[in-house]
Specification:
Length: 334
């Protein structure tokens, strides 16, 4: 299972900044995730929200601001201002870190239709990443996944869903993904439904050591977290419950085809997960050690006890908020 840094090492650094991505690599992340949105003049930037207010000292919709206007904003902290990360800068960083996997999420719905995907194709081609196996496109939009399949057929495409179910089957049919992604709640709510997809699995967001153990036991391939170093330690300290990794390797060595080997791994994974579940007295979360259990003074998040948290309620849950914006008027740095 690979550890993916969600918006970089965003638990301790401002999300979607070069500092967060550099920290992720230093902390042992196998890959990094970023969200992309279009500016008013057609440039891609790395930003999760539809609006600028939560993570910068600006305000208003991302799509209503030009790149020149966004370049004047601070996406860092008061003490260490940073510019909003342009997607081209992110790709330059990716080229300089060839061993790091890239998970690029297209954000929808947007008023520009599939323009994001068309610009994305052009930028990936420019940097030679349009046929790189470490580049993966992820989205909640089956239309986006389908379009990427036509525009960038050599790349893996991950359809994101909140939980397995009937709607998921429709999304798989419409999008034609090569892998599936589910959040931790959905993975816990219906693990059998998730594993019945028989596809590579991406899961977000690991917040405790038990989340890491659960994901490993259920055969998750890529696990996203805001705390890559702590997730890595939790993964490496996890006992080989059920021995499903060894079973999969032995099956492949015995000449079993890939699907049969995956089935063998899944059978062991079910057994391992059942053992883990049996140890949960109340819930897995209640027994887990928070990956982000750092004193506030040790976090480079810009958060202060007196700050009011502001976020886009349509695209974020309160628990996703880890920092507040820099004070208006703070000068930006490179």
């Amino acid at each position: 299972m690979q550890i993916i840094a969600h918006r970089g090492a965003s638990g301790a650094h401002p999300e979607h900044t070069i500092g967060a991505y550099e920290a992720a690599v230093a902390e042992g992340a196998d890959g990094v995730e970023c969200d992309i949105r279009l500016t008013a003049d057609g440039h891609l930037i790395c930003m999760h929200d539809r609006t600028l207010g939560r993570t910068t000292d600006g305000s208003g919709p991302v799509g209503a601001a030009t790149l020149a206007q966004i370049r004047r904003l601070n996406a860092g902290t008061w003490e260490r201002p940073q510019r909003v990360l342009e997607f081209d800068v992110f790709l330059e960083w990716a080229v300089a870190n060839p061993g790091t996997g890239l998970f690029i999420e297209t954000k929808h719905p947007v008023t520009t239709g599939l323009r994001t995907e068309r610009v994305l194709r052009g930028r990936l081609r420019h940097f030679g990443l349009d046929d790189d196996p470490r580049t993966r496109i992820i989205s909640f939009s089956s239309r986006s996944i389908n379009a990427v399949g036509a525009m960038l057929p050599k790349l893996e495409r991950i359809q994101l869903v909140k939980t397995p179910g009937a709607r998921t089957a429709v999304q798989r049919y419409l999008g034609g993904p090569t892998a599936m992604g589910v959040d931790m709640y959905g993975a816990r709510r219906d693990p059998m439904g998730m594993m019945s997809w028989d596809m590579p699995l991406y899961c977000w967001l690991a917040k405790t050591d038990v989340d890491v153990s659960y994901a490993k036991a259920r055969g998750i391939d890529w696990l996203a977290t805001d705390w890559p170093a702590r997730a890595r330690r939790a993964l490496e300290s996890m006992p080989k419950v059920g021995g499903f990794d060894a079973a999969s390797a032995a099956a492949m060595a015995a000449g079993m085809n890939e699907r049969d080997a995956r089935d063998a791994r899944a059978e062991r994974a079910h057994h391992a997960a059942d053992l883990i579940a049996a140890q949960d007295a109340v819930t897995a979360e209640a027994q887990g050690t928070p990956l982000g259990n750092l004193p506030l003074s040790e976090r480079d998040t810009g958060l202060r006890p007196t700050d009011a948290v502001d976020f886009d309620r349509e695209s974020l849950r309160p628990e996703d908020v880890t920092r507040t914006v820099a004070k208006p008027g703070t000068a930006t740095g490179n």
